[in-house]
Design goal:
Keywords: Signal. By secondary structure, the chain is mainly β. The protein is built from 2 helices and 15 strands.
Length: about 300
């Protein structure tokens, strides 16, 4: 039993070892221990609120109208998102929480038959070791008619990589409408807008809330000593954490050159927790983003 205790303690000690962190690297242990002798009553709710805000931040971009590229075409773009992070929700970054964060990304789309389009986006959260990856499939239910707007449905999955102790995934269903207007020759202008529903899911690994204790402090005759002052936050479920994002933008195409800009506003709902025998309800602020793109459409 003592041998098992030492192995568990070694794993906990290794996972809590300090590493050099970038300014915007996430440190979710700062929400506090939701269990134990002195639990933080709001810890699970703070984790849920953070997940919904961060989920909104990493899915605050569309930058394409509902029409597809066409079954034989490609679109390759460099994109930049400027996302607000409301100060009323704790985003536990290594340094002081920023009011805005930049997420540059690379986006590729390929048209398929039957008005389908497959796409992928890879982005980076500035001043961090975190990467955002998105896979998407779009179907244009109506496109290319002279007097009717284009209408499309897009399904997408976005995951945050590189965040210690955190698993954050957002599944989305996006409904968009737009209309392409020719300006002459191969030059077109396409205004568009839509509603994107984001289903947020998040989990944490078991976190050591006292990482400064020594290896010897975590060993003993009881194998559970190594797990003292450790816990995981309550799971954030996809079905009960739904963000609503409204967006509008415009795309310009001249020959193969493509330019675009987009505004996005995401409602993130509310969270609740029990404190002193009563339920505390807490509304969450919206997340605003400005997105721009430059690329090739061919």
């Amino acid at each position: 039993m003592r041998t098992f205790s030492r192995w568990v303690a070694l794993a906990a000690w290794a996972s809590g070892a300090s590493v050099v962190a970038a300014p915007n690297d996430l440190q979710i242990a700062r929400f506090g221990n939701p269990t134990g002798d002195n639990p933080v009553a709001s810890a699970d709710a703070d984790f849920q609120a953070f997940a919904r805000i961060m989920g909104a931040a990493i899915t605050s971009v569309n930058l394409m109208p509902p029409e597809t590229t066409g079954h034989s075409a490609w679109a390759i773009n460099a994109e930049l998102s400027v996302v607000s992070l409301p100060g009323s929700v704790n985003i536990p970054t290594q340094n002081e929480q920023p009011s805005t964060v930049l997420i540059p990304s690379f986006h590729a789309r390929k048209g398929l038959p039957f008005s389908l389009e497959l796409g992928g986006r890879v982005g980076w959260v500035e001043k961090s070791s975190q990467v955002v990856a998105t896979g998407e499939l779009k179907w244009a239910a109506n496109e290319g008619f002279t007097y009717l707007p284009d209408f499309g449905v897009r399904g997408h999955v976005t995951k945050l990589f590189g965040a210690r102790d955190l698993g954050l995934t957002v599944m989305g269903l996006d409904f968009g409408a737009g209309k392409q207007f020719p300006l002459g020759g191969m030059v077109t202008l396409t205004p568009y807008g839509g509603l994107d529903l984001g289903f947020v899911g998040a989990t944490s690994s078991r976190i050591d809330f006292n990482p400064d204790r020594s290896f010897d402090d975590t060993t003993g005759d009881d194998s559970r000593v190594a797990l003292t002052d450790t816990a995981a936050y309550r799971k954030v479920s996809f079905g009960s954490n739904i963000n609503q994002r409204v967006y509008g933008g415009v795309r310009f195409i001249g020959g193969v050159l493509q330019l675009g800009a987009e505004l996005s506003l995401t409602r993130t709902g509310s969270v609740s927790y029990e404190e002193n025998g009563s339920t505390v309800e807490r509304g969450l602020p919206a997340v605003f983003a400005f997105n721009t793109t430059l690329g090739l459409d061919f």
